[in-house]
Write a structure and sequence with these properties.
alpha/beta; two-stranded antiparallel sheet; 7% strand
Length: 544
């Protein structure tokens, strides 16, 4: 009797088949986000720090072009304490961009934001599968502060992007334990190095690598009941791997950092100390009171994060708690690496916040400096929704959570459209009462992005019959408005830069709008809330 040959199937495994729709959904999401970014990145105004960042970037490029002979980047303002990776790339593109240097820099900023969505996808996929990966990217792109800082924040947004890719590399290393391949060690070191090449103070990311990999290795051997000889062998190998991660990261960091290259060990350590001791003592509006930066209560950062999270983030986090309770009640205990990955996400969110509170470090501008906690928050919330869907059998509950999330997302999309291009002034309605409820209680446009719209109003509507140039001052920094006025008016409008102005532009920060003299001509508003003001101090002399 002949035995038939075995049938070899070319069909994809069930897991791959189930993953395909989520891969497709992520591709569509990235396509939509890319189209929106390319269509709108020119809408965003300048922010207060961008001129100094540009000047520093020029000096960083000069360092490399002259092979270190031009040392102006090594002691420029306090920016020499920051790495030059993003700055050099953004400035190189900006100098060649047809629309202008800042427009080119904004484009690079936007590309980094899109890469951050890819990082959220990778991290979410590693933690909970492709569904969680897609939802993680969706949650992140619909966080208004993430998108609002995507184009004109050259410090904190690139850090958030590189941070999430580092976390994804750490999680991948956990999956490969007990022996992390050298290739993964090198990739993790490279990702960490790019984080440090933006801000050396982010060195705590190396702690994530060590805790996750050492903890994962110990748990692996505990569950396998390994012999002590095997444990010692793997611990020694991992120790060498961690040293290599740090060495690669340090090398990448100083390569993109003129100040670090001068003294590769002493100077980065000095920058890390300076970052921890940074002081900023200007008044901040917090809960309706003006409080000095060095006297802010410990609640400042948690409240700032809490009022900026869209409501569907809270729903996702609550869903995760519900899923955990359901699994615990069903007798589910420690299984696989899921708990360790969730613990890493929680640690990456809570540790930097807690460290700042305990150390009483200076924090200002709401949660701007902590944008890097948004990607792991998005992954955790997305994972919560996906987990609840898996563990709850009641169809009504599953559908209810999905509908509530979809409704919350649709609402936030409407908010982002109505705030455009100032999504960075978003406040949730749950805790802050929206932008209307937050106005006067918290900082709104602290970075002066709305000056551009005020300048554009002048170009359209202010036409006095005069021969002399119209001098426009700015209560924050003249370049925030003069960059747009001088390029578009052919010399009709000029920045003040110390000269007596005809017009003054002001925002509500530090109550400048109340302390600016003159006749009010125009107010830039979103959702009925004032953001920028145009005052006429003295009319230009009439034409002779």
């Amino acid at each position: 009797m002949d035995v038939p040959p075995p049938v070899v199937s070319d069909a994809a495994p069930p897991e791959a088949v189930r993953a395909q729709p989520w891969h497709l959904a992520f591709g569509v999401l990235m396509g939509v986000a890319t189209v929106v970014a390319l269509a709108t990145f020119l809408d965003y105004g300048l922010t207060w720090d961008e001129d100094m960042q540009r000047q520093y970037a020029e000096r960083v490029l000069a360092w490399y072009r002259t092979l270190g002979r031009d040392r102006s980047a090594v002691d420029f303002a306090n920016l020499y304490l920051y790495g030059g990776f993003f700055e050099a790339l953004a400035q190189w593109v900006g100098e060649r961009f047809p629309a202008g240097v800042y427009e080119g820099r904004h484009l690079v900023n936007g590309v980094f934001a899109l890469l951050g969505l890819g990082g959220a996808w990778q991290l979410g996929r590693r933690c909970g599968g492709p569904r969680v990966g897609f939802l993680s990217a969706l949650f992140l792109v619909l966080h208004p502060l993430y998108w609002g800082h995507a184009f004109n924040n050259p410090k904190d947004l690139p850090l958030a992007t590189l941070s999430v890719w580092t976390l994804a590399a750490v999680v991948r290393g956990m999956e490969l334990l007990p022996r992390v391949p050298w290739r993964q060690v090198l990739l993790t070191g490279g990702a960490l190095g790019l984080v440090l090449a933006v801000r050396a103070g982010a060195i705590f990311h190396f702690g994530y690598v060590g805790l996750a990999w050492v903890g994962g290795l110990l748990v692996h051997h505990w569950r396998a009941d390994s012999r002590s000889r095997e444990l010692l062998r793997d611990v020694g190998r991992l120790g060498l791997g961690l040293l290599l991660v740090l060495a690669v990261a340090w090398g990448v960091m100083v390569f993109f950092w003129p100040y670090g290259l001068v003294r590769p060990f002493k100077n980065p350590l000095n920058a890390i100390r300076e970052a921890a001791a940074f002081e900023w003592d200007e008044p901040l509006r917090f809960l309706g009171r003006d409080v000095r930066g060095r006297r802010l209560p410990w609640t400042y950062l948690p409240v700032s994060i809490g009022i900026s999270l869209p409501e569907f983030f809270y729903l996702g986090l609550l869903a995760g708690v519900g899923a955990w309770v359901a699994r615990w009640r069903a007798g589910w205990r420690w299984a696989g690496q899921g708990w360790m990955k969730a613990g890493l996400l929680l640690f990456a969110i809570l540790f930097p916040i807690g460290a700042v509170i305990v150390a009483r470090s200076t924090v200002y501008d709401g949660m701007r400096h902590f944008l890097f906690v948004l990607p792991p928050l998005a992954v955790l919330a997305a994972w919560g929704v996906s987990s609840l869907w898996d563990v709850v059998g009641a169809r009504a509950v599953r559908v209810g959570v999905a509908v509530a999330c979809a409704a919350g997302m649709a609402w936030v999309v409407g908010e982002m459209v109505s705030l455009h291009p100032y999504q960075s002034v978003y406040f949730n309605r749950l805790l802050a009462g929206g932008l209307r409820g937050a106005a006067g209680r918290f900082e709104t446009d602290y970075w002066g992005a709305s000056y551009r719209e005020a300048a554009e109003w002048l170009l359209r509507e202010y036409h006095p019959d005069t021969d002399e140039p119209i001098v426009v001052a700015n209560r924050s920094a003249d370049f925030l408005s003069s960059y747009f006025l001088e390029r578009a008016s052919g010399g009709r409008f000029v920045g003040a830069y110390g000269r007596e102005p005809h017009l003054i532009l002001a925002t509500e920060r530090w109550d400048w709008h109340k302390r600016t003299p003159g006749r009010l001509l125009h107010v830039v508003r979103r959702q009925g809330v004032p953001l920028a003001y145009v005052f006429e101090v003295r009319p230009p002399a009439p034409r002779r």
